[in-house]
Amino acid sequence: MKKKKKGRSGAIRGLARVGTRRVPDGNSVGAVLDGLGDRSFGWALLFVGLLNMLPLPYGSNMVFGLPSLFISIQMVLGKRTLWLPAFILKRHIERETWRRAALKALPIARPLARLTKVRLTSLFTGRAERVLGILLVASAVNLCLPIPLSAWLPAISFAVIGIGLVEHDGAIVALGGGLATGSILISIAMVAAFYFGVSFFAG
Fold it and tell me: What's the pTM?
């Protein structure tokens, strides 16, 4: 029996739909978000996660982690698509610039199509997404804390959850949620160890 070929991923469909629009002067940021639909949160979290995984100077996470807090709060509020200020939404991206960016993202999106699939869709209901949003808010605060080497695990969790949201893969989202929870517990343990250590030597 011939094996059924898996269709293109939601990530690839979203990129292709936005990137191939016949708009002479390009697309606005708002039009790009509309084209990505509910996957806009996933792409935003993936971008923020990858950004904070870069070898940036110490303390950068306190700045670059703020967008993750901005995104997470919107998920708690139950927003269906990512909201950005009007002056950002109106900014135009030239069609060729977007096309190049989409082509660079495709090598990442194609492997995702093979590794992920639509499953555990109950995690994408309104209530479950808000619970996820609360976890992400806590993880975003954790990401912004000035604790040495504490930003890596939350950043990875944001990237993993972003992938899960883009592909509507609840198992990947759950994995990212586990990483986020673990990163929060590790940070609490580090702060507690520092506090009790200082108290011991001071006392």
Answer: 0.78
C-alpha span between 5 and 2 (Å, rounded): 9
Question: How would you label 10-30 residue by residue, b for 16+ Cβ within 10 Å and e otherwise?
Answer: bbbbbbeebbeeeeeebbbeb
Structural domain harbouring 108: 10-202
Task: Please tell me the predicted confidence (pLDDT) of residue 3.
Answer: 44
Residue 3 within any structural domain of the chain: no
CB 61 within 8 A of CB 143: yes
Q: Does the residue 2 lie in any domain?
A: no
Cα angle, residue 85 at apex, residues 80 and 90 outer, rounded to 5°: 100
Q: Is residue 1 domain-resident?
A: no
Neighbour count for residue 43 (Cβ, 10 Å): 21
Angle between helices 40-52 and 66-76 (to 10 degrees): 150
CA angle, 115 then 70 then 15, to 5°: 40
Alpha helices in 20-55 (DSSP H): 29-36, 40-52
Residue with the bigger pLDDT between 192 and 108: it is 192
Q: Are 180 and 136 in contact (CB under 8 A)?
A: yes
User: Side-chain half-sphere of 171: how many Cα atoms within 13 Å?
Assistant: 5
User: How many domains does the chain fold into?
Assistant: 1
Residue 190 lies in a domain: yes
